[in-house]
Amino acid sequence: MVACAMKWSGKYIWACKNYDGDVQSDTVAQGYGSLGLMTSVLLAPDGRTMEAEAAHGTVTRHFRMHQQGKETSTNPIASIFAWTRGLSHRGKLDNNDELIKFSNTLEKVCIDCVERGQ
Asked: Residues 19, 23, 24, 26: what is their CA dihedral angle, to the nearest 10 degrees?
């Protein structure tokens, strides 16, 4: 299925159990360039409880390298998107259109920077 997902141009839904989704999404993200661009969102059945996280674990390793005086480079986009997804959800719960707009704008600016190669 991963090979097909890499070749296809979209327009399909791929439903996975939790573990399978973790493994397959990481594989697909690597194929498209970087786990650093991937965010994971879990939404409870009540629609109110939500958890968003960066789907990679490089920041701790990079911080340890920084502490040792080594040069590092960390892609912050997934962490930014984890925050924007959480803030957007909070905005929906509170009917706060300004917060939703801020979250969407921040995501768009990040995407625009990547697409421009900045």
From this structure: 130
